[in-house]
Write a structure and sequence with these properties.
Length: 211
């Protein structure tokens, strides 16, 4: 049985769609998933990038695309009142629900749906966050120092494993990024020999122009 580490941030609609699509995409394979919340903004800062929602044109395209993809997948998705928002309270809440900082699928599903099935409500609304906390009953206080440290450690570990975006699925040192990488992840779990050839050789392509 393979172990898949899923790095996610609830701020990402792509992470939400991939989370919802994962069970069907991997149906029939033997695997277990470890969910690790990370701060996407920290990845962007580490790599010197802006998020999709921070770039004019790309912002509008991102929202249109995820609404289209949700429709194609048959997954309910409504945009929150504003985006991007501060995801730290939601990330810390999820981390606080498990002593190792690795929330269950139920916890992740509940938080994702709080954001992306909100019927236009604010994802960071204080009253809604309070109700969500009551529903999940975290084992630790989300604002505890150890919880904050675990979230930071998850994010730093993601960077160390070559993670540059969310959602990312890591298995056997192989990193699969994005909703559209699920078929590729499935092929790896099925033992596709392609991963012994092009997967390896692609990493040896020389970098040309540098900016």
């Amino acid at each position: 049985m393979k172990t898949i580490t899923c790095y996610l941030d609830f701020i990402s609609p792509y992470a939400y769609l991939a989370f919802e699509a994962l069970p069907q995409a991997l149906m029939g394979t033997s695997y277990r998933v470890v969910y690790r919340p990370i701060l996407f903004a920290a990845l962007l800062k580490h790599h010197g990038q802006l998020g999709p929602a921070e770039i004019a044109g790309k912002r509008e395209w991102t929202y249109r695309q995820v609404l289209w993809q949700a429709r194609q997948l048959g997954v309910p998705l409504q945009m929150p009142a504003s985006h991007p928002f501060n995801p730290l309270p939601l990330l810390r809440l999820a981390v606080a629900c498990d002593r190792h900082g690795e929330p269950s699928r139920y916890v992740c599903e509940t938080v994702f749906r709080h954001v992306w099935r909100s019927e236009g409500a604010a994802a960071d609304d204080v009253a809604r966050l309070g109700a969500l906390t009551t529903q999940l009953l975290p084992a630790r206080a989300p604002d505890a120092a150890e919880v904050k440290d675990q979230l930071k450690a998850h994010t730093e570990a993601a960077m160390a494993h070559g993670v540059f975006g969310v959602p990312t699925f890591e298995v056997d040192g192989h990193v699969f990024w994005g909703l559209d990488a699920l078929p590729m992840l499935r092929a790896y779990l099925d033992g596709d020999a392609w991963f012994e050839g092009p997967w390896v050789s692609a990493a040896s392509v020389a970098q040309g122009v540098k900016r």
